[in-house]
Amino acid sequence: MSCQNRRVAFLTEMGLGPVWSQRGAAALLQPDDDPPVNHLAAIAVVAEPDIAEPNLSAWSHAESAKIAAPVPTLSKPATLVTDVMRMDWDQLKSAVSTCTLCDLCKSRTQTVFGAGYQKARWLFVGEGPGRNEDFQGEPFVGPAGKLLDNMFVAMGMKRGENTYIANVVKCRPTDANKRDRAPAAEEVNACMPYLERQIALINPTVIVALGKTAALSLLKLDPATPVSKLRGTVHRYAGLPLIVTYHPAYLLRSPAEKSKAWADLCLAMQTYAGSAVV
Ligand code: URA
Questions:
Q1: 116 Cβ inside 6 Å of ligand 1
Q2: What are the angstrom distances between the C-alpha of 98 and each of 78, 94, 101?
Q3: Measured from the CB, is residue 264 less than 6 Å from ligand 1?
Q4: Where are the alpha helices (DSSP H) in 67-211?
Q5: Integer Cα distance of 226 and 65 in angstroms
Q6: Residue ranges of the domains in the chain?
Q7: Closest listed residue to residue 113, CA positions, set 237, 198, 202, 184
Q8: 3-state SS class at 38
Q9: Which of 97, 205, 208, 273 is 20 to 30 A distant from 120 in Cα terms?
Q10: Is the CB of 139 under 6 A from ligand 1?
């Protein structure tokens, strides 16, 4: 299927597809149109982490100079990082499930390791578990996960089949009111070796970073970098192609951006086609 045809499929899967009017005429919404009321839009997003996309108006030339600046890394015991980088899947899962490297361990119901095919060619990286994921122990099982599943369908893929889903942090970050929040820098730092090992074990053909936390953590960029500045480029993580797109939770809040996410997924599919070893 061409990217153009898949675009139609994607917009349909995303709740932006052909809509029957009362007079019976079908109309395909243009990318920037508001979506119709549909089952996706009707899903409450209160349980999802509040992953705010940066304010574009705050972007200035001075800030763009910061893009290349590495995020300061907190020191971790070198032996721990070395140990993690030698672990196999079982050892890694076990280490994550008992991890106490940051305070998120105190409030978690359980860790959310990641899920999918361990030799997947496609790796999708999110931010961290929300309430649903903390409860079920699986990544992306809430409303944003349903949207992610629809994105897979539009790409001709299915969760778990040639895909792996991981998060930057493996425990649910919450605020003082027990609401989901983005992970703090020290929480990301503590957890990154686990994600790095997952990536090394999977060795995917393409990595798709879902949202700001995933993109900036993997690319080690300044925390002020907006996702919008990272889209449309094939980045590299340890030599592997990495595409940045919006987080599904953000897309649920800003459905007009779904067409941009589709453009990102098309870039990812083109990159995959150009990199896949048969
Ligand atoms: N958001 C994420 O980033 N990851 C999940 O697993 C669920 C919601």
A1: no
A2: 19, 6, 9
A3: no
A4: 78-84, 89-97, 104-107, 131-136, 143-154, 185-202
A5: 13
A6: 3-275
A7: 198
A8: coil
A9: 97
A10: yes
CA of 129 to the centre of ligand 1 (A): 5
Strand ranges for the chain from DSSP E = 19-20, 26-27, 115-116, 122-126, 163-167, 206-210, 235-237, 240-245
CATH superfamily of 3-275: Uracil-DNA glycosylase-like domain (3.40.470.10)
Query: What pLDDT, in 10s, does the model give residues 140-189?
Result: 999 999 999 999 999 999 999 999 999 999 999 999 999 999 999 999 99
pTM more than 0.70: yes
CB within 8 Å of 264: residues ≥ 6 apart: 208, 231, 232, 243, 244, 245, 246
Rounded Cα distance between 174 and 258, Å, is 27
Which of 141, 167, 245 best tests ligand 1's pocket when mutated (most atoms within 8 Å of CB)?
Answer: 167
Token look-up 């999918």 returns 116
| Best mutation site among 45, 112, 127 for ligand 1 pocket (most ligand atoms within 8 Å of CB) | 127
Distance 139 CA to ligand 1 centre (A): 6
pLDDT tens readout for residues 180-192: 999 999 999 999 9
User: For residue 158, which phi and psi values (nearest 5 degrees)?
Assistant: -145, 145
Atom in ligand 1 nearest the alpha carbon of residue 138: 6
Ligand 1 center to residue 167 CA distance, Å?
7
Task: With CA atoms as reference, report the closest residue to 95 among 191, 160, 182, 199.
Answer: 191
Distance 146 CA to ligand 1 centre (A): 11
